[in-house]
Amino acid sequence: MRAVTERLERYQLRGNRLAMIGLAVLGAVALMAVFGPFIAPYDPLEQDLASRLLTPSWDHPMGTDDLGRDILSRILAGASVSLSIGITVVAITATFGTLLGFLAGYIGGAVDEAVMRVVDVVLAFPSIILALVIAGLLGPGFENVVIALALTQWPAYTRLVRGTTLSVREMEYVEAAKAIRAPRRHIIVRHVMPNAIHPVVVLVTLDIATTIIFASALSFLGVGIQPPQAEWGSMLKAGIPYLRSYPHVTFFPGLMIMLTVLAFNFVGDGLRDAIDPKREEMMVVRG
How much is the pTM? Predict the structure, then answer.
């Protein structure tokens, strides 16, 4: 981890304009998620049928939906839901998948075989389809969406970390630790994990973006977050009948999903460039 930190401190993503733009957008979305309830001009759940389907104006900068609810207020409320789902799911999948990958890659043998067969079974199904089935069985709601997505996304971490661990465990410093009979747990925690975790840093950032898309898709299909709770995917679904006549109802939720996902992807690409040793070597050669 020290090598990762040193490279991040050296580059600080300042040389990557897209990454800096992504950080700025994510900072804005995070502020929306934290302070949205305090700065929202209206109650995101309050219905006003006399003001339904109003186009953007000074009173309603993003207009109103089919029930007269202020879209800006619901966008602000939905930011915390989308980010919470993304961060919670990735925290669970990254932790569980990474630990399994370390064990499978380092111990090998029957443990590796058993873990990778389970990974192959899960990866045999498209993630969104499997998540849709699980969410449909469990029912809608925040917790069930988290469970459905977590059960389908952990294999990516296991497979990635296993491959990296297989390479790291053959390094000289690991062999030296084995030669002096260091405990296996000490070798994994002290030598293998810090040097095999580099790709996980990038995958975590990119995976949050994927999770937000999947969560929005589940809500759009009716098995995720349910109205009247504000969530960008469910807001998209509610605006579909009015797509031609009142496009603002779907435009703004879709725009927020797009900007947030792009921001995470930009930051993930910047992190990949910052911690990639090959990039550093190329910069030295070119310099």
Answer: 0.84
